UniProtKB/TrEMBL annotation:
Ranges of residues in domain Aldehyde oxidase/xanthine dehydrogenase a/b hammerhead: 54-160
PANTHER family in the record: XANTHINE DEHYDROGENASE, XANTHINE DEHYDROGENASE SUBUNIT D-RELATED
Annotated protein name in UniProt: Oxidoreductase
Organism lineage string: Bacteria, Bacillati, Actinomycetota, Actinomycetes, Kitasatosporales
Pfam families reported in the protein's UniProt record: Ald_Xan_dh_C, MoCoBD_1, MoCoBD_2
Species: Streptomyces albospinus
């Protein structure tokens, strides 16, 4: 029975509230105590879980320093305007105000950006999006700082905002670099090829916000040497340090970024502009300066998923086998470039999905507008095209009278096939196995048409719908993402492993964003060295760089560096013993803290072998290189790929358009399961985030003005919205070029889930469903079924 535990003979049990039972032996009964699990392949709990649940985890918003000042940022209320003047006199004269900084007070580079340095620290000639920073204030109280920021008088000349990306091509330049950020014209096979059957579709994907559980915050502390230390929840501290140093007119070693607790990250966690404002104010005042953004500021400041327009035309033969895919992809980058070139490359490369397509013609553009900035967010580029190509597969199946799952199986990709970029899929690609697994899983039972079961209706217990208007739909989707950086990105990470006594320490600048890297690092060292107690040091820029936390890179690159360093320490540990007994180190093994030889002659503990010495080693991991896409979209741009299949079961009230996702059945290509509980949690979280993109998450704007930038106006899925998520298969076909053979876990279900939900709603309503999130009016059947 769910929620209960049986009590065995001779013992009593108490629940810990999480389903586990603590056994208490009866008098005179001896129960062996199992050693705690460790190493790869076990569900090792997170080391920081107790601190997070007890409220003692050190987030940036909790930091304090002696002589602390508070910062506030003045942001533009307009999406586009020319700045005629900025008058800071009223702000500087307010009691308690210690400094006001504007564009004129930036001593170094005036612009910054993760991809292209096209974004000003403070707007000075023109504001290009609603919420762009214009000035920052430091004061002795947060209310004073906010009042002073509001007292800065800015004279604007309002300009016509360009908010439709389709108009950006003909509009006047919104930026000195122009409106076009990147254009990729992909050509594969014969562009003149045609099929016996053709279907077309138009798709529109909304602006999803990362909506981190904690808003951005940071603390900047000036140093005696003229430098500054910035404490913040950065996910890429070395890049942030370099951006800050360039803006401050300092050398990189004069700026130190210390990573505080990250309250979740599914994108670039911090807006660098907050860190730059803090650093400038700390250097100007000579005092520590703190900023804790409001939720409204958070929505306005950080980057979002790229809103995208997609036009598709699929050609197939009479049996449903794809002949050619034509696509046009237009991504709205917002005011600045950020990582839009990377997102576009992923979108164009995966425009045909995990299917064999002999011929492809794909045009992709990323353009500037006066909308909020777009940037890196889990599955960027891949999510948008997945929703479109899976919509096309549903249309093709309907036109040919073939089951949606069957038409996918007839075209499915496998290892050895070619991407439309000309790259051979050399990694494991068990896509057909994934699809069959979700197809063959039992379907959930239909809800009973009784008052007791009304909570199963779309709209919830208080919904106005009638059971007779509810239709159930079953939909399928296949998704894919790339691993690590692409197009020649130099992916490298460095790690140091130290062992002293019975304790090991890992030093690596890989930020724990919730991906589980810290837990994985402990497991790697436990597995390699047999040491149970492993500590992972905090991250700062005094350590060698490890790169940003995205695309599963820390599992692969940073995990690989930790493994290599641990193996080097293992060799140092075993060499003296091997020499003493006249054997090679390969004949010795470490298990459960004991070193033994193949013949049983040697048996000692790791602590005894160390004999008070400290051993350490530093290693790097760098995967094989990639190359940029050429002028026709061809090239080996990706290190590896990961795949997912999802079957969605949804109930739709075809009169009201309300939708209830009943179940999401998932099969995923994971390479190797390193931590079962952590892996399943990541997949479930990814599916839920994808559900949000499908049904509710959309940061709405009116002529570039963000509407309701708060958690009241921006809907997120809660536990009540999340469906049953059944993981029916995890395919462990190891990627031989990846450390441990593992693949990223959370991005690919995010990419696949929205397409699966849309497919299920199509099946229930017969409507095309080309827009995400799905609006109620789109789910109303044109001719209600009887």
């Amino acid at each position: 029975m769910r929620g209960r535990a049986k009590r065995g003979i001779g013992m009593s049990g108490t629940s810990d509230g999480a389903g586990a039972v603590t056994a208490t032996p009866a008098a005179g009964v001896q129960i062996p105590v199992e050693p705690p699990p460790h190493g790869l392949g076990v569900s090792l709990p997170s080391a920081d879980a107790p601190a997070k649940t007890e409220g003692t985890f050190p987030y940036a918003a909790d930091l304090w320093a002696e002589g602390l000042l508070w910062a506030a940022v003045l942001r533009s209320p307009h999406p586009r305007a020319r700045i005629r003047s900025v008058d800071t006199r009223y702000a500087t004269e307010m009691p308690g105000v210690r400094a006001v900084v504007t564009h004129e007070d930036v001593p170094g580079d005036k612009g910054h950006g993760r991809g292209t340095a096209d974004r000003p620290v403070f707007a000075h000639d023109e504001v290009r999006y609603h919420g762009e920073p214009i000035a920052a204030v430091a004061a002795d109280h947060p209310d004073t700082a906010r009042l002073a920021a509001a007292a800065i008088a800015v004279e604007y000349e309002l300009l016509d905002a360009v908010t439709d990306p389709q108009l950006a091509f003909e509009a006047e330049p919104l930026h000195p670099d122009g409106n076009l950020i990147r254009h990729i014209p992909l050509r594969f096979g014969d562009p003149e090829a045609v099929g016996e059957v053709m279907v077309e579709g138009f798709y529109r994907i909304g602006r999803q916000d990362p909506a981190p559980i904690g808003a951005e915050a940071g603390l900047a502390v000036p140093r005696p040497d003229g430098g500054v230390e910035i404490y913040t929840a950065s996910t890429d501290p070395h890049t942030d340090r370099d951006l800050a140093a360039a803006s401050f007119g300092l050398e990189p070693d004069q700026v130190k970024v210390v990573v505080t607790g990250v309250p979740g990250a599914t994108a670039d966690r911090e807006d660098p502009g907050i860190q730059l404002s803090l650093g400038l104010l700390a250097l100007r005042t000579g005092c520590p300066v703190k900023l804790a953004a409001t939720r409204e500021e958070s929505f306005l400041a950080h980057s979002h998923r790229h809103p995208t327009l997609l036009r598709y035309r699929h050609h197939a033969d009479a049996e449903g086998r794809l002949v050619k895919v034509e696509a046009q992809i237009l991504m709205d980058a917002g005011a600045y470039a950020e990582t839009s070139a990377e997102a576009l490359a992923a979108a164009v490369s995966f425009a045909c999905g995990p299917y064999v397509v002999p011929h492809a013609v794909v045009e992709g553009w990323a353009v500037r507008t006066n909308n909020p900035p777009s940037g890196h967010m889990r599955g960027e580029g891949a999510l948008q095209v997945c929703a479109a190509y899976e919509g096309q597969m549903d249309k093709l199946a309907a036109q040919l009278g073939i089951e949606p799952d069957e038409i996918r199986l007839r075209n499915i990709m496998a290892t050895g096939d070619l991407l439309p970029t000309g790259q051979t899929v050399t990694c494991p690609a068990p896509v057909a196995e994934l699809l069959r697994a979700v197809k063959e899983a039992p379907l959930p039972e239909l809800p009973k048409d009784t008052p007791e079961a009304e909570w199963l209706l779309p709209g919830g217990p208080e919904g106005a719908g009638e059971p007779g208007a509810v239709r159930r739909g079953v939909g399928y989707a296949l998704g894919m993402v790339h691993m690590l950086g692409a197009e020649g990105t130099d992916e490298v990470s460095t790690a140091t492993v130290k062992v002293s006594g019975s304790v090991a320490t890992v030093i690596c600048a890989a930020v724990e964003t919730g991906s589980g890297f810290s837990t994985l690092a402990r497991q790697i060292v436990q597995e390699t060295l047999g040491v149970d107690e492993v500590h992972v040091a905090g991250v700062d820029t005094d350590q060698p760089p490890a790169g940003r936390a995205c695309h599963g890179r820390h599992t692969w690159v940073s995990g690989g560096a930790v493994e290599r360093a641990a193996k080097m320490v293992r060799t140092q540990l075993l060499q003296p013993l091997a020499h003493k007994f006249g054997m090679s180190t390969e004949l010795l093994q470490i298990t459960d803290g004991k070193i033994t030889s193949y013949d049983g002659v040697l048996s000692t503990t790791v602590a005894e072998a160390l004999d008070g010495k400290e051993l350490w080693a530093t290693a790097q991991c760098r995967p094989h290189p990639t190359e940029p896409l050429d002028d026709t979209g061809q090239g080996d741009a990706f290190v590896g790929l990961a795949f997912c299949a999802i079957r969605c079961v949804a109930d739709v009230d075809i009169e009201l358009g309300t939708i209830r996702v009943v179940e999401m059945t998932v099969a995923q290509d994971v390479g190797r399961v390193l931590n079962p509980a952590q892996l399943r949690a990541r997949i479930e979280a990814g599916v839920t985030q994808g559900l949000g993109a499908a049904l509710m998450e959309n940061l709405r704007t009116t002529r570039g003005q963000v509407r309701h930038p708060d958690l009241t106006g921006y809907a997120l899925p809660t536990a009540l919205d999340a469906p049953d998520i059944r993981i029916v298969k995890l395919v462990e076909e190891r990627d031989v070029v990846a450390p441990f053979g593992a693949k990223p876990a959370s991005a690919v279900p995010v990419v696949t889930a929205p397409a699966a939900v849309a497919s299920a709603v199509r099946a229930a309503t017969g409507r095309p469903i080309g827009r995400l999130p799905i609006r109620p009016q789109a789910a109303v059947a044109q001719t209600p079924q009887q």
